[in-house]
Write a structure and sequence with these properties.
It contains 13 helices and 17 strands. By secondary structure, it is an alpha/beta fold. It has 2 domains: about 260 residues, Mur-like, catalytic domain (UDP-N-acetylmuramoyl-L-alanine:D-glutamate ligase), CATH 3.40.1190; about 130 residues, Protein-Tyrosine Phosphatase, Chain A (Alpha-Beta Complex). The strands form 3 sheets. The chain has an 8-stranded mixed sheet with strand order 4-3-2-5-1-6-7-8, with helices on both faces. α6 links the parallel β7 and β8. It is globular, with a radius of gyration of 21 Å.
Length: about 400
């Protein structure tokens, strides 16, 4: 496909970001700092929250429908040609969207393209890039049916984006994952920078107003930054972005100063991740969608709202370990409203309710998500509780507009 379209991906000065959780937040920090440095920045992420256009942005502005339509018309003859070839067959939706992003960023002549891996890495559609630098966020168990049964197997798939000679920044990892990354980087002659060793990181404060961290790159003195995104887990995401920004500076991106980084980190936006919507009731939206994401949410709830009663609207996809996930969060909630994610892959609300009930929480089932959040709001106001909406990014994306009124 890309050959038929003149290889737009080869025209992109890109950073490639893989990992399990934290890819989007890391991309958001990198994007905000690069914009603050005066660069034109394309960003390709998935999934979207409320609109497909969110997946392809330049300087935080989603692609317009007119531009999306025009790009589809450009790509359509090549898509049809490939689809008609029995050796290849029909492209997937993700392959098409990746091609559209590459075309859009190349046509717009962006200074930097931030490209997030869709799934895994080695066989992901985005892995045709030859980027300037590579970021690898925290690795956890997820999509085992595709990526493998254990962390080393998953790490090998994620490490598939490491390219010969291209520098890599990795978040803190468990020893077996870090060993996979180090071995792959060594085999491919790729320098590797690790958070926790080459990039020192310390969380100094964590409140509803932000997260304060100290970051030090190699021998440089550490500096304190305020992160606009909430939760202590954001320290590692910001540290990966910080390392990538240092590598870009070394590659000639002179506008990336410490001041630009500070401004960017303090203004980064990534909705639906420990996102507080003020009002009555106060609502916390979090797209935690796997056990690792639920552990992060659990830590965030304990740190940000230690003495606050909480209830939740929860919808989870069926290919997730629902029962394990319920055990992680159950202790935080007085009440859980189980609902159905708007997806063919959704877990039935009865399964979600049964899992939380088995973990000792009062539950009820409201199958329609729109009715579920209204029920949650009524209960939260009446009982003066924080309302948490979680379990799937698809659920958060659908319900986020309703959180504001």
């Amino acid at each position: 496909m890309l050959a038929l379209l003149g290889h737009p991906e080869e025209k992109l000065p890109a950073v490639h970001i893989g990992g399990t959780n934290g890819k989007g937040s890391t991309a958001a920090y990198l994007e905000a700092a690069a914009i603050a440095a005066g660069l034109s920045v394309g960003k390709y992420t998935s999934p979207h929250l409320s609109s497909y256009k969110e997946r392809i942005t330049i300087n935080r502005q989603p692609i317009s429908l007119e531009n999306l339509d025009a790009l589809v018309e450009v790509a359509k003859p090549a898509i049809e040609q490939v689809a008609a070839d029995p050796e290849y067959g029909q492209l997937t939706e993700f392959e098409v969207s990746t091609i559209l992003a590459f075309l859009y960023f190349a046509q717009s002549d962006v200074d930097l393209a931030i490209i997030e891996v869709g799934l895994g890495g080695r066989l992901d559609a985005t892995n045709v890039l030859h980027p300037l630098a590579i970021g690898l966020t925290h690795i956890a168990l997820d999509h085992q049916e595709i990526l493998g049964p254990d962390l080393p197997s998953i790490a090998r798939e994620k490490a598939g984006i490491i390219k010969p000679g291209v520098p890599v920044v990795t978040a803190r990892q468990c020893p077996e994952v870090l060993q996979v990354f180090r071995n792959t980087a060594e085999q491919r002659g790729a320098p590797i920078v690790t958070v926790g060793a080459d990039i020192r990181v310390t969380v100094t404060r964590c409140t509803e107003a932000g997260t304060w961290v100290q970051l030090g790159y190699k021998d440089e003195a550490p500096r304190e930054f305020r992160l606009n995104l909430l939760g202590s887990h954001q320290a590692d995401n910001a540290a990966v972005a910080y390392g990538l920004l240092q590598l870009l500076k070394e590659k000639g991106f002179g506008g990336i100063t410490e001041e630009a980084i500070a401004h960017g980190f303090a203004s980064a936006i990534w909705p639906g991740r420990l996102e507080i919507i003020p009002g009555r009731p106060k609502i916390l939206l979090d797209g935690g969608h796997n056990p690792d994401g639920f552990c992060t949410l659990s830590n965030g709830l304990a740190m940000l709202f230690p003495n606050v009663l909480k209830l939740a609207v929860v919808g989870i996809l069926d290919n997730r370990p629902v029962e394990e996930m319920a055990k992680i969060l159950a202790g935080h909630f007085t009440h859980v409203i189980a609902t159905r994610v708007d997806s063919a892959n959704a877990a039935e609300p009865e399964r979600v309710a049964k899992a939380f009930a088995a973990a000792g929480v009062t539950t009820e089932i409201v199958t329609d998500p729109l009715q579920a959040i209204q029920r949650g709001k009524e209960l939260a106001v009446r009982e003066n509780q924080l309302l948490v909406v979680t379990g799937s990014l698809y659920l958060v994306g659908q319900l986020r507009p309703l959180a504001f009124y």
